Amino acid sequence: MSEAEFTRFWSLCQVAPGINLVAVTILIGRKLKGAPGILVSVLGLLLPSVAITILLTACYSRLEHLRAMQSALRGIIPATVGLGFMTAINIARPLIQESQHEGKGHAAMSLVLIVGALLLALWHKPVILVLLSAGLASGLYQWRFPSKDEAAL
Amino acid sequence: MNLLLYFALVLRASFFSTGGMGNVPALHDDLIARGWATEKIFAEGLAVGQVSPGPNGLWVVSLGYLLGGLRGAILSAIAICLPPLVILLLDRAYHRVKHHSAIVGFVRGLGLAVVGVFGVVLVGLLGGVGLDAASVAIALVSFVLGGSKRVPVIVILAGFAALGILLYGA
Question: For chain A, how many structural domains are there in total?
């Protein structure tokens, strides 16, 4: 597999639903050995880590009643929240940079989508509807006002 | 809890999101509303998922175990394997899809909205374990450490686990 091909797979996987790494693994597996290649690749990626996740959770379930575990969780959960905010920024950063590159209107649209989704979530609107509405609004906007690169295609 | 419905909810949340954590807001919404999960269980699933090896996104497996035992975990694992298969269709239509402005916009809108909703969910999770000065400080420090990319996630979590025991007792 060439580097260019790997890069193409990786960029394509950014628009695939679910875990990007699983999608890349599917494409690599198919390239190497078709359907059996997909099965073996996905199993190879997920079987060990899923098994370890289950074991860790099972251990946690047995120990969660201990005071030490509850105290440890009072440290771990806020830390997970902090890391979650960093994940959110990592998701948003390339999308916002891309829209800034396309112009002020696109950048403003990005901010409207983040703030709008935040407000709708605070207002307890169903999340799936919020996500789909944001996707449709953004898709329509991009279709109506394509970037220069897209318009040139 | 109806495990088949749980499977369908994980599948739906994963289909309408990208990345391993993109399904957090939708699942949080569905499971809390049905009373199948509490903020605490949700936070525990996310925490154990962060500690686990492998791709970012296996927190759902941990949540599945906490809610439905081994069957819940296995159903979660299957549900997160299916949505990425759409890549096979996308790959076929690569040249049309990659630069189609409406598709680019749709995926971007989905990602940006996930960020907005994710913020609300995270604040809710923090509130679920007791919002005090110590937990806000821990969240802020782990945010900074995570952003620096110099300290492995497992080390950050182990450090704050130890701090939790020191602060709240064993």
Answer: 2
Q: Out of B17, B104, B167, whose CB is closest to A17?
A: B17
Find the DSSP H helices in chain A.
Answer: 3-13, 20-63, 67-102, 104-122, 127-144, 148-152
Containing structural domain, residue B54: 3-131
A99 and A48 in one domain? no
Q: Are residues A117 and B116, on separate chains, in Cβ contact within 8 Å?
A: yes
> Euclidean distance between the first and final Cα of chain A, in Å?
28
Is the complex ipTM higher than 0.90? no
Q: Are residues A35 and A76 in the same domain?
A: no
Contact A54, B66 (CB under 8 A): no
A151 & A98 share domain: yes
Asked if residue B150 belongs to a domain, the reply is no
**pLDDT band for position A110 (cuts 50, 70, 90):** very high
Structure-block tokens of residue A74: 């009072």
Q: What is the dihedral of CA A109, A115, A116, A122, to 10 degrees?
A: 170
Q: Does A6 lie in the same domain as A58?
A: yes
Ramachandran region of residue B134, left (φ > 0), alpha (ψ -120 to 50) or beta?
alpha
What tokens were used for B141? 């420090």
Give the Cα separation of B16 and B144 in Å (integer). 29
Chain pair A-B, CB pairs under 8 angstroms: 362
Distance from CA of A104 to the nearest CA of B (A): 15
Number of structural domains in chain B: 1
pLDDT digits (tens, 9 = 90+) for B58-84: 999 999 999 999 999 999 999 999 999
Print the domain residue range for A75. 67-153
The CA distance from B170 to B160, in Å, is 14
